[in-house]
Amino acid sequence: MSINTPDVIVIGGGTGGYSTALRAASLGLDVVLVERDKVGGTCLHRGCIPSKAMLHAAELVDGIAEARERWGVKATLDSVDWPALVATRDDIVARNHQGVEAHLAHAGVRVVRGSARLTGPRAVRVEDVHNEPALGVRDFIAHRGIVLATGSRPRMLPGLSPDGRRVVTSDDALFAPGLPASVLVLGGGAIGVEYASFHRSMGAQVTLVEAADRIVPLEDAEVSRHLTRGLKKRGIDVQAGARLLDAEVLEDGIRARVRTARGETRVVEAERLLVAVGRAPVTEGLDLAAAGLTTDERGFVAPADWSRLETAVPGMHVVGDLLPPPSLGLAHASFAEGLLVAETLAGMSSPAVEYAAVPRVTYSSPQTASVGLGEAEARARGHEVEVNTMPLTAVAKGMVHGQGGMVKVVAEAGGGQVLGVHLVGPHVSEMIAESQLIVGWDAQPSDVARHVHAHPTLSEAVGEVFLTLAGRGLHQQ
């Protein structure tokens, strides 16, 4: 049996894996990328891209209702052609998939189909090749290093078994048949909130259950409050501080018992139960022990050197959802991790990923977008802070949109550096880029206040908040 000897072996073709492979190949390294399914991973095929396509359709549906109810445009929604909607979504995914494959091919990355198993610190065996049995088992030895990028899968609660129809995970919710008339969503993080928002836009009765005392619990508390207010205004039953006691699958749906924050037991009946309680790293079948690696108690593979994302085994690196916090489990963070690891393997000096400066977005209606520290987190870290908050409806464009929302800035007291920016409202996913630079470059409010924001825009509210913090307040009282 011949042994292939590339410079780098990447196991997993999701966002972290293929970005590592592309960058490493662009630096002249010989790269093998092993993927047992499709390159692009969960984000492209089951998560980020198809879900945002569906949320765009939901936004169009919401726009029809707003046109009729708020603006006097007598538009009505006839129906949602589910097969047509799905076809458009799938076309977007397919074209992106073709693009990733073309990029890899153009870069000279060798994509190997199959399941990878570590056989040593620099050795990988690939087997179980789908639909290509003639290729058999192949062995590889990496000259420079191996990158683990095997991703994650949805976590499930004990006693629940997804069937793809009545009980679904965040991975298969988009592919369940048709649009349900009612949904119980378990999990009030970004994924759960997005699915709750989508189904409500499509006319479903939605109950959202989160065990923590507020939804999107990793965000600033004011973000949670504004988002909760916005979701409730849309008719979503938000139950924070609540827990699922049990659930029964019926012929036409599910019946669940939920313990509310007040200690009451509620019975919730819905056509579908959607479980979005987080994701778990995938390491089964890798045989980490053969390379001298172990996982932590949560199943993550922790790096010994975060500046290089290198494990305790030299030449073994980790990117993406296999990393524990402070990594964020976000596709754009994985891209940055892939660039870092590829450049490290090429012998370059590359800046470590600054996770505090990575933006976090929830693509619901209303949207949330944040970067940096929340107020409570900043105080807990010993910062003396100054905070300024402004409702989006305090600017004309916010009134036009009529969806509420806010801008909140957390800065060091006395005009010091900006520690965090937090947005809630329409289109804030497109507004966070400016704040990412502000936080990432350690700017102070006075640095931002000298720049002029266009009027009338939603981003004008961001400028107003910084003007006030810099002692140059104009419209904000």
Specify the biggest β-sheet.
5 strands, parallel
Class based on secondary structure composition and strand pairing: alpha/beta
Overall morphology? globular
How many DSSP H or I helices?
12
Name the poorly predicted regions. none
Order the strands across the largest sheet as they lie in space.
Answer: 4-3-2-8-19
Helix share bin: 25-40%
Q: Which class of the largest domain in CATH terms?
A: Alpha Beta
| CATH fold-level assignment of the largest domain | FAD/NAD(P)-binding domain
Rg (CA only) = 24 Å
Mean pLDDT: 95
CATH superfamily of the largest domain, please?
FAD/NAD(P)-binding domain
Question: N-to-C terminal Cα separation, in Å?
Answer: 76 Å
Strand element count? 24
**How many separate domains?**
3
Strand content: 15-25%
The CATH architecture name of the largest domain reads 3-Layer(bba) Sandwich
Descriptive notes:
Its EC number is 1.8.1.4. GO terms for molecular function: dihydrolipoyl dehydrogenase (NADH) activity; flavin adenine dinucleotide binding. InterPro entries: Class-I_Pyr_Nuc-Dis_Oxidored, FAD/NAD-bd_sf, FAD/NAD-binding_dom, FAD/NAD-linked_Rdtase_dimer_sf, Lipoamide_DH, Pyr_nuc-diS_OxRdtase, Pyr_nucl-diS_OxRdtase_dimer, Pyr_OxRdtase_I_AS. 44% of the residues are buried. This protein has helices at residues 15-26, 41-45, 48-70, 82-107, 190-201, 221-233, 331-345, 375-380, 396-401, 432-440, 445-449, 459-469, and strands at 3-4, 8-11, 31-35, 110-113, 115-120, 123-127, 138-141, 145-148, 152-154, 167-169, 182-186, 205-210, 237-240, 243-249, 254-259, 265-270, 272-275, 279-281, 316-318, 360-362, 367-372, 385-391, 406-412, 418-425. It has a five-stranded parallel β-sheet, covered by helices on one side. It is an alpha/beta fold. It folds into three domains: 3-44 and 88-153 and 280-356, FAD/NAD(P)-binding domain (3-Layer(bba) Sandwich); 167-277, FAD/NAD(P)-binding domain (3-Layer(bba) Sandwich); 366-469, Enolase-like, domain 1. It is built from twelve helices and 24 strands. Helix content is 30%, strand content 24%.
